[in-house]
Amino acid sequence: MIVCCGFVVCWSANEILYFLRLIGYYPGRNNWFTYFSIVMVKVNSCINPFIYAAKYGEFQNGVRRMIARLTGNPQNIESGHVASGPINQQTRGTAVT
Asked: 96: alpha, beta or left, given left = phi > 0 and alpha = psi -120 to 50?
């Protein structure tokens, strides 16, 4: 719901501008509303990762797994705790031969 609301808010100015052009009113390219609508469309692309990071647990777990892989640390996804040290075979649930 938050992503949809962000989309509507950010794209509304651009859609209003397109509607005005459709009915015959062309405000021009060097007008503040045109620049504002372009900036708001760009802002939509920037806010989505922050919304996902703040609201979705699966996204948060994915980021934790990615950081754990990059740093070489095993991770307990359920608790969100990243342990220190290398991953051994028993931690993964397979037998060491």
From this structure: beta
Q: What is the CA angle 34-44-63, rounded to 5?
A: 160
Name residues whose C-beta falls within 8 Å of residue 15's C-beta, 6 or more positions apart in sequence.
none
Give the contacts of 36 (CB within 8 A, at least 6 positions apart).
Answer: 13
pTM for the structure as a whole: 0.53
Local confidence pLDDT in tens for the 97 residues of the chain: 888 898 999 999 999 998 998 998 877 788 888 899 999 999 998 998 888 788 888 888 888 888 888 888 765 544 555 454 444 444 455 555 4
